[in-house]
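Margin note from the TA: students keep mixing up input and output lines. Inputs are the sequences; the output is the structure of the whole complex. Example:
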Amino acid sequence: MDVGRHPKIRLLAYSEIEKIDGEMGNFHITVRKKARYVDEKKCTGCGTCAEKCPTVTSDAYNLGLGKAKAIYKYFAQGIPSAYTINANVCRQLQGKKCGVCAKVCQAGAIDYKQQEQIIEFDVGAIIVATGYDLFDATKIPEYGYGRLPNVVTALEFERFLSASGPTHGHVYRRSDLALMDALPEAEKSQQKAAKGLEQLEKKGGMSSADFYAKYEAGELQGEEYDKWAEQVKVSRAATEKLEAMKAKVDQIEGAHRLAFIQCVGSRDIRFNKYCSGFCCMHAVKEAIIGLEHDRDAEVYIFGMDIRAVGKNFEEYRNRGAGSGIKFIRSRVAEIYEDKDHTPILVYEDTKERQVKQLPVDLVILATACQPSEGIVKMAATVGIETNDFGFIKTASYPPLSTSRPGVFVCGCAVSPMDIPESVAQASSAAARAAQVLSGSETERLAS
Amino acid sequence: MNRDVLVIGGGIAGMQASLDLGEMGFQVHLVERLPSIGGKMSQLDKTFPTNDCAL
């Protein structure tokens, strides 16, 4: 990425705006740079620290689907490439004994005593590009997100599709992934039980099978033998559990039947009345890629309509239909699961006027684009207003001006939009900021 | 008149605005809340309608 290398761009990552004083042409900015506990200038991004770090936690970038260490890089190609210590889970920063990363770091970049920094500077114009958050799908309990393991969001599915994601691009049911994850633990407890048994066998001088037969027959009695018998039972149960799990894991196939549900939290008077815009095409894209991964996959998209408004979007939708996506005009009423965690969709097929049920392997929810969680606080800090929907309020003309002169906004901080539109708006906001810096905005406002 | 500019947010919009202003010769300060820039787009595998890689 060119942003990290550009001589005219000073990157302040892991930082938040503390205060903005002054006015257009002369803003005074105060930024709080959070402690990374790693020196950004020294860290080479080699990753030895994370390899050796003993603390495993869930991975925020992969939305908790993968694992990360307490010292982490937000994502592999991230810029700046420096690592960061998660102070909430790091043993050293929690006051326990550790210090492994500092020992293995050849660059000497680890600094457990690093403090927050306050950085101040002056600017003439400001661009707000704070983006959005996704709708929390647990607010729609009938879809079971968070409760049913095989109901995921579109962004989570995106991580499944990614070759650098937690499943290396293979699409599995999340319940199967949990099973695979649990296998090493079951193996460990089986081995532990077997080891305990081995010791007892050595001490007792016979095999456990022989012993147990005799014990059952009442030939051997006493506290020692009771313990041994108990251990035999524990070991047998652990082996049985492991065998059953292995058999199940052997049967695991990738998720083959995919159902996409549109407008989850959008165009819904209970949550957001507006259309989130990009989700239709996002679902079509994920469905096409899902079909590329597995040509025989059954792929359904459930929605009120497909809004393919954009250059080449309609053609893209038709390409998806051509490669086998089944579009079903329906708003899914409910999802429940059977005992194998297979989600079953209950819906009305509005073309056939019939209520139907459909079992699938994975349900993918197109969650709405919402104002970001911190937008109210951020807007107050920057001194700009939000609109009725909670996005940043803009003038109808010129469109990217906020309520504070010299402050412009672009991207999903304005309203839901896709990537090409965000990029176009960003260039537009940049041009508006340049007008301020060259003095022509002051003239425009005066006239 | 100060000739620097502040961009808040290092997602696709913030990065594009920063690059444009940098290319015009203005000094840009780009502030990102997370440890890395890239935003939500960096989490996408490919993008529509061209299926190009997002990164």
